[in-house]
Amino acid sequence: AADKINLIPQDFFAELCEQIIQHLNHKIPGVNTAELCQRIQTSGIEINVGDLAKIANIISFLFSTAARNNLSTEELVTTLGNTVSTLPKHAVQVIRHVWNEQGKSISVSEDARNTATVGQFVDIKWKLGVAMSSDTCRSLKYPYVTVTLKVADPSGQITDKSFEMTIPQFKNFFRQFKEMAAVLETV
Question: What pTM was computed for the model?
């Protein structure tokens, strides 16, 4: 991963680290590596989303472990130097700066450690479509609803999950949401 970190310009790496700190502080639901990767690629750097997601997971693990062990900035940098000698100098500088500025704000409560690891809902999009025909059927005229959920997994990676439903399935889905809303009104 160190060779991939070397590819990332310092400003993008700093933005990634800041987003990870914000995620660990529960200020944002996750790190949108797809969007960040697209911006890095637009700047002319060849990196793929999978590699950027691995780097984000490593940095997230690094920051959360440092918070759990209550490491100072110097202890973190010393530990990094002892264990990861191949880390680029600009990356160490960014990690030092971000940890120095925001590292102590990471809250590592016992409740947070013991909670089940589930994803967090970020956004929902839907669209209504009609399948007109296919190679096996000339006249379908079949309406459907496509739903795309944006979800942040426990590590903070934001992913899209899409699925299609028939109109009866969508009506059932909608009914269940209305039931949830009614229960939430009583809380």
Answer: 0.62
